[in-house]
Each structure stands twice: as C-alpha cells, then as structure tokens.
Write a structure and sequence with these properties.
alpha+beta
C-alpha cells in the first residue's frame, strides 16, 4: 500500500479542534462548557438527569450545568474546578476535544497541561470584575504556549444589564495586553453562560453585537495543519530487531512522527551522532508505505547499520536541528518545591532523558506590566521565568516557535520523578527580544 503526496495534502486539513478554557475563579468556565455541551445536544439523557438530581438535592431550581464537567467531589462541594476536565463532543461541522482548566491561581499549572496541545484558548472574564491578575496570567500562558487563537469571553453580561460600554472597555484592555504578548489573533465575544446568550444561539439581549457566537467561532476558526511544511522530526522510541528465521536481518526504528513527513528514499541524519543514511522502508500497521506523516506511529528502516537507540532523533539530512548542551528557555514552574540555581535535574525531551544542571535563572516574569524581575535566584509554584540549563549530553532541540512538540521539554526531580517545570526553548513571547547570552561559568561537572 502506498500513499501519494496528494493524499497527504488532503489529510493535512483536519476537522478536529483542540481548545482549552481558562479564567479566574467563579468566572463561569464550567458553566460555559456545560451550556456549550447542553445547547449543542452533546449531553446524554442520563448525564442530564444526574445533573438535575444533583442540582435539586442542593436546593437549586434549575440544573447547574457546571456539574457536567466538575466531576470530583471536592469540586462539587466547593463549586470550583480543581483538575483539568477533558470533554469530547461534535457538531455536524467539526469535532472537538475540550480541556476545562482550573481558574484558581493554585492550579495555574493545570492550565499549562490543558493548553499545551490546544489550537485555541477561551479566556473568560467576569463582566463585573474586568481583567484581573489571573486573566493576565492565563493570557501569558496562552502566549508562551504559542496558542494561535484566543477567544475573550466576557461572561455574566446579564449582571451588568448587557451594557455595551462594559464589554468594549474589557475587550480593549485585554486585546492591548494580549497583543503585547504576541498573541496573533484575539476574538472578543459578550456572553451569559447561565442564560445561554451568545454561547450556541445569538442573544436577543445584545443587538449591538454582530459577531459570532462561541460555538459558531469554534466551528469556523481556521485550523491549518500543513504537515508538508513542518520540520520533519522522528524521535526513536524503540529498536525492533527480531533476529528470527523469518526476519534474520530486520532492523527497524519505531516511534511516533513528531512533525512533518518522511518518504522512502529520503536522506536523513541521526542525532546527536550526526551519522547519515537513507530511508529504505517505512512500515505502518504491518504494511509498507511510501510516505508517513505526523502523528502516525511507524517503523523506519535505514540503508546503513547505525548505532541508534531510544532517544535519538531522525531528521531530513538538509533540515536537521543543531545539537546543544546549553538550553535557554522559558519555563512554567509546576511543582510545590522551588527550582533553584545549581539544582541537578533530569531534562526530558521527546523520548530522550538526560542529566542536567540549572546554571542560571536570569529573570522571572511580572505579569502586571510584563517586566522581567532580574536574577530571582529561584522559581516557585506557578512562576514563569527564564532559565539556562546545561545538559550532560547533546540535545537535538528545536525552538518552541518552530515546533511545539520538539521545542518543549520537562524538568524532572531525579530523586522522586516529580515534574518541576514545563519548558519552551528559545524566545518566550512572539514580540519579545532575546535575552543576552550568558557567560559560561567554571566549576560545572559538564
């Protein structure tokens, strides 16, 4: 079975949209998600009956749609979202994977998880409170994670008499802030999640608004995956060498294509060794194919016997990333224990995990004015900061701006395996200027 370039081009456009919701506590994220699911007829009858029963037991006259996503007992008792809740639903126009992320500052780290693979982020703002610190924090995280589309949902418009000036002021303030972060596209929509205004159906209470509803925007926002234009990257996960009578000389390298496409006959480079070879075969689902693309899981076979193991990266010979042992990146600190200069960590990049040392923490981001607080010495939970990490072995690392998959990494505590920080290599925000290079220091082990 072979796959042509025309078939690849047809498959590069997808009907799937991954998006995340975020906002401050009590801004109504879970209610918005519940309203979205309910009004788009994406809720099963037994789910709705369970929510109605739970709402009635709490003395509420109408179903509390937030309960459709807040499934943990602690979430229902406190009326807040604690963990990321994933929901899958579809309309005739598009399929969706939704991540409802917590709003409390204590759980900002959970938003990093939910938004890391999102193509769109819905940031909610309470119309009565306007843009608050947590709103700015969520906008910053969306910008750092290079989420290409951001929707500002100004919620609870029913509590401000659907006043257009209130919406306009909030939209202008948020748009100015997010634009400074380098967010490429911002769409502001006035809504009432509780009443259903502009969520799925247009609102009769805001005739001054002529834009799309939330669902209409989600269904029509362009989501382009031009796989042929991506830098092709294949992290090796496993070496297949059966050495059986049927396959005495078979040597294949299995894994998931992280980005781009690979073709039989294409010259490739194996990193970090730098050895070159040519792809002789690609096996997918037990059959040979001429071409494979992200995110397919395949086995690649090469013309030459090269020492390749888990953690190595296969890339086109003319488009291979440079290897480095000095990683300059922005990190979102997600652990309770701080990250300090001189700390020994493990750095996990795709399928490769190496020992590393935090050489420097040049700055910590101040969300109020987007200034950089110099030399903080350490980062604590929910901090966003710049780090310089020295690794024991070379890494084939792209910049995060070029590839969200191969430009990202995790810093891990070697003692107990706790994830300390989520990192993004290269410049932080799209409009940010590069930090000056750090001088090498003596006394490091590697």
């Amino acid at each position: 079975m072979s796959t042509t370039s025309e078939q690849l081009a047809d498959l590069s456009a997808t009907t799937l949209l991954r998006f995340a919701t975020a906002g401050s506590v009590d801004d109504g994220k879970s209610t918005l998600v519940g309203r979205l699911l309910h009004d788009s007829k994406s809720v099963l009858v037994d789910q709705l009956e369970a929510v109605e029963a739970a709402s009635l037991s709490r003395g509420q006259d109408a179903p509390d749609l937030a309960l459709l996503t807040d499934g943990l007992r602690a979430e229902r008792e406190q009326g807040i979202t604690i963990d990321v809740a994933y929901r899958y639903f579809a309309t005739p126009r598009r399929r969706f994977i939704l991540a409802d992320t917590p709003g409390h500052v204590q759980y900002t780290r959970n938003m990093v998880t939910g938004a890391s693979t999102a193509e769109l982020a819905v940031v909610l703002v309470d119309a009565r409170n306007g843009v608050v610190e947590q709103t700015r924090r969520h906008a910053a995280v969306a910008a750092l994670l290079r989420v290409p589309h951001v929707v500002l949902a100004v919620n609870k418009m029913d509590l401000v008499d659907y006043a257009e000036p209130v919406f306009a002021k909030i939209a202008e303030e948020f748009t100015t802030y997010a634009s400074e972060l380098g967010v490429p596209e911002i769409t502001a929509i006035p809504i009432s999640a509780l009443a259903g205004d502009n969520v799925v159906e247009p609102s009769a209470n805001m005739d001054w608004y002529g834009g799309p509803t939330v669902l209409e925007h989600l269904e029509t926002v362009p989501v382009s995956h031009d796989l042929t234009a991506c830098h092709a990257r294949f992290p090796v996960q496993y070496v297949i060498r059966p050495q059986t009578a049927e396959h005495p000389d078979y040597r294949g390298y299995a894994g998931q294509i992280a980005a781009g496409a690979f073709r039989v006959g294409e010259p490739v480079t194996v990193l970090p060794s730098g050895r070159t070879s040519t792809i002789t075969a690609i096996d997918a689902l037990g059959e040979s194919v001429d071409i494979a693309w992200a995110p397919q899981s395949v086995t690649i076979r090469l013309a030459d016997d090269i020492d390749i193991s888990r953690g190595d990266l296969i890339a086109p010979a003319g488009d291979a990333p440079a290897t480095t042992q000095d990683v300059v990146a922005t990190v979102c600190h997600v652990a309770d224990q701080p990250l300090a200069v001189g700390q020994r960590v493990l750095l996990k990049h795709t399928t490769r995990t190496v020992k590393a040392i935090v050489k420097d923490i040049p700055s910590r981001l101040t969300l109020d004015d987007l200034s950089q607080h110099p030399a903080p010495g350490q980062l604590v939970a929910n901090d966003i900061g710049r780090v310089v990490v020295r690794t024991a072995e070379p890494l084939a690392l792209d910049t995060y701006a070029d590839s969200r998959r191969t430009g990202s990494f995790l810093l891990i505590d070697p003692a107990d395996g706790t994830t300390l920080a989520a990192g993004m290599a290269g410049e932080s925000f799209a409009s940010a200027k590069a930090l000056p290079a750090q001088d090498d220091e003596d006394g490091w082990d590697f």
